[in-house]
Design goal:
9 strands; 9 helices; 244 residues; 7-stranded mixed beta sheet; alpha/beta
Amino acid sequence: MADSVCLVMPCFNERSRLRVDQVQLLAAHDRVSMVLVDDGSTDGTLDLLRSIERDTPRVSVIAVAHNAGKGEAVRAGLASPAAQQSSWVGYVDADLSTPVAEIVRLLDIASARTGVDVILGSRVALLGRDVQRSAFRHYTGRIFATLASIVLTKPVYDTQCGAKLFRRTDAFARSIDTPFHSRWAFDVELLGRLHQAGVPASGFWEEPLLEWHDIGESRRTLRASLRASADLLPIWLALRARGR
């Protein structure tokens, strides 16, 4: 039987950007369910998510009362009862920069590769691929990835791509049992926690995406990028403390 996945989509003030048709297209896949998490939005996003929930099978909504940041919104979705019904869980960005077809392809890879517990979408601008990313995001991303690889002590090309899948194991459950230390760099901490919980290096698979489009009005500003980079030190310290 093919593996199923529950995908978490964190949303903060996304009413004007959320592509409802694409969300419904993703949720319509017979192996996919979704948890839409409203992270204390103030622009009516929650009402929009509730309407999607009413109209779309296998979609549920979680409302976080106060904005706690993307990391905690993702963690709330991953720990929700709805996520416990699938063999894999994961998260995707609300702008769906990673197209639906690519998310489904990652699930196919997850089902096909034995011994792999973590699938990471990776934005690599290779010949023959349609990866459209601003120069700012590319170069700041390369600097961040270098620093993140040092923290994780493993050569990860792209920790911040918003398309990740995780086999739902005891190691994964232990990795989301406490809050993250960063709003923007929580991905790095989650990968570090997974390794500490027992996922070997061979259990991680980084897959270059065939298509990824940088959606306009990105929340990844220079200030956010600097904050995420600054958060790597407390993440490193937290991982050291957790591993004792």
